[in-house]
Amino acid sequence: MQYVSTRGSAPRLGFEDVTLAGLASDGGLYVPDQWPSFTTAEIAAMRGLSYVDTAVAVMRPFVAGALDDQELKALCEAAYGRFAHAAVVPLKQLDHRQWLLELFHGPTLAFKDVALQLLGLLFERFLAKRDTHLTVIGATSGDTGSAAIDALAGRAKVDIFMLHPKGRVSEVQRRQMTTVLAPNVHNIAIEGSFDDAQALVKAMFADAGFANRFNLSAVNSINWARLMAQVVYYFYAGVQLGAPDRPVAFSVPTGNFGDVFAGYVAARMGLPVAKLVVATNVNDILHRALSTGDYSVGTVTPTSAPSMDIQVSSNFERLLFDLHGRDGAALNATMNGFESSRRLDIPAAMRSEAAGLFSSARIDADRMQMAMRWAHDRAGETIDPHSAIGLAAAQDAELDASIPVVTLATAHPAKFGDAVERATGVRPTLPARIGELFERQERYVVLPAEIGAIEQFVADQSVTAA
Ligand SMILES: *Cc1c(COP(=O)(O)O)cnc(C)c1O
């Protein structure tokens, strides 16, 4: 499988190079040069398969040329063997047509583990063959940082530097990062906001001398391999509910448009997806874009679903690429316009093409709490604020009554215990396997939000590591 950039001018790469590169050199994002697709017989043959075997069947076309079936299966067994539930991502029934797909049984209790556990193993495997050391740099407002650190801790030939805004992540989130004491893990608390941390990361990537010297790489959801790993659970859930004979809808709590884009890929590959409901909180740029064509950047309002408090959804570019007829030069012009004016008007023809598969909803705090209470009181399920936004959008969606709707449950309720307690009156408990988090030793440095200080720290630590 070959991959092309959404902006049309970066070199075509194979799976291995795409995984290690993250972002394309022309500023675009990598996508497969064509969407693979399954026949209905191939999808029907996924019935009864374990999660690992489903993963091999779904990801096989994307890794072709880089990994054979046995190698892919061994990596999936290692990645998903660390999940605490025998089904890996169990599907739970809420009522006669609403279902919940629990994606949070991985080591750090959010759905990002599904992709990052595999990505960590792919990095190690691909680096083993090369004379290269990789420096992963990221900024986090919580979930991505802990999932990436867990996935990369102790792995050979890679160091990870994770920036978080000092005092602005929850204590559980901070401890999930800072209690990982592996020598290749470096936590930096920035004296500033999440936006400051993200701007510093961007500046380091833009500093070509620095980026090349330390071989910088990214693990945020612009990395294609992450999206690929997320396509799997759409098939896994869809087949359990009757695909390919019966269409299934999904409601996806959305921030960077990564998770829901994986659902789009599943549909392109032949899964009968009746609808993808893009569920946003009051930070509703995607809802505005899909419903009225207005993709313009506002200011971020903090909510109790912080992983969706996003203004620019980087993976939306991948959908725009297909809506531009996969014309990289045309999309490049569109994105240059967007980057200078911070707004983009999506033409009616593109919007109606997207509307064939996507619908969207903006869920405010009251509606979110109502969904959390409904799940708790009526279905015996405690859900977190992100998942509750997905469920509210699923319940409000106008869909044919015969179609089952799967809400993706993206975080364990105990990760957001205060918000859950406010809505339901019950405080969820942290699973025993991470319960002793509060007794463990922490290690992190505090640095000012200045590029010079961060680059110096990276350089010093990398010398030690080498
Ligand atoms: C990251 C995250 C999301 C948003 O996922 P995207 O792929 O960025 O759209 C939703 N919920 C939780 C709990 C997350 O950590």
Question: How is this structure best summarized?
Answer:
The chain contains 20 helices and 16 strands. The protein has 466 residues and is an alpha/beta fold.
List the main descriptive attributes of the protein structure presented here.
single chain; 466 residues; alpha/beta; 6-stranded mixed beta sheet; 5-stranded parallel beta sheet; 45% helix; binds pyridoxal-5'-phosphate
Ligand inventory = pyridoxal-5'-phosphate
What characteristic shape results from the CA principal axes?
globular
Question: Average pLDDT, to the nearest integer?
Answer: 94
Q: What is the structural class?
A: alpha/beta
Distance between the termini: 34 Å
Radius of gyration: 21 Å
Total count of strands: 16
Taken as a percent bin, the fraction of beta residues is 15-25%
Number of helices: 20
Give the proportion of residues in helices: 40-55%
Low-confidence stretches: none
Strand order of the largest sheet: 4-5-15-10-11-14
Main sheet summary = 6 strands, mixed
